[in-house]
Amino acid sequence: MKPVDIRVQEFKQVYRAVGAALNALNLKADRKVYDPDEITTDRIKLAQDKGLLTKRKSPKLTSDGYYALYNWREEQRQKELADAIEYDRQVEARIQQEEAKNRGEL
User: Fold this and answer.
1) Cβ partners under 8 Å of residue 88, min gap 6
2) What confidence tens digit (pLDDT) does each residue in 9-65 have?
3) CB distance 65 to 47 below 8 Å
């Protein structure tokens, strides 16, 4: 593996681990509804160690932190879309099965 690939993989692991905390901190800063359970000292410490948050009493996202948050939100959106597509496929299959049963094909 190339050194760049290793850094990218490490970055992905970090933002997956702390993404929910970054999101909660960002929502809190914007005075929006957030889940305080997502903001744990372990996640904050990891994010600070990786340079995603400032090392202040009330940490703020750095530019890398905003980038990680964007990636985490995009990954979450892709998962939601994939789940919705799979659900639609299952519903469509049930509808087709029911229609075939009603026509007497099953």
Assistant:
1) none
2) 888 888 888 999 999 999 999 999 999 999 999 999 999 999 999 999 899 999 999
3) yes
Taking the alpha carbons at both ends of the chain, their separation in whole angstroms is: 53
Q: Name every residue whose Cβ is closer than 8 Å to that of residue 52 and which is 6 or more positions away in sequence.
A: 14, 15, 18, 22, 61, 62, 64, 65, 68
The tens digit of pLDDT for each residue in 37-53 reads 999 999 999 999 999 99
Looking at the structure, give the CATH architecture of the domain made up of residues 3-103: Orthogonal Bundle (1.10)
The residue type of 14 is: V
Going from N- to C-terminal start, the domains of the chain cover 3-103
Tokens of 102: 């009603």
